[in-house]
Amino acid sequence: MTPFHVVAVSSSGDEGHPSPPPGLRADQYALIRLSNVKDRNVLETLDTEIGTVNEVPNIEELSDESWEICILESHRRTVQDTLGKIFSGSDVDLYYDPLEATANDLEFWDYDTAKKLLRQ
Length: 120
Known about the structure:
It is built from four helices and four strands, in the order βαββαβαα. The chain has 120 residues and is of the alpha+beta class. The chain has a four-stranded antiparallel β-sheet with strand order 2-3-1-4, with helices on one face. The chain is globular. It starts with 28 loop residues before the first strand and ends with a helix. Mean pLDDT is 77; it is low at 5-17.
């Protein structure tokens, strides 16, 4: 299994994503966030560099042009190193929480309002 092998989990609760295969537990996976990416062809670059983008069914571009990716918990550091090499100068948040307000959110709303909006 490659460091980028994931199950389809969506932070938005999108029911269009299939359930994980039998025997896999959601607590084995984590969401990370890739931001400050200069490359506009993130999916193509990942496909070229790691060749397993088809195994990343829930990689999603977010409204702030960052990327949410679901990975195996045990591969956090490997994924961070790999993404850092592929997308030089980018930021990888290994402990990304989609329900936590980001700096971008806080430019528009106070913390409590941003948290409330994220939970809707």
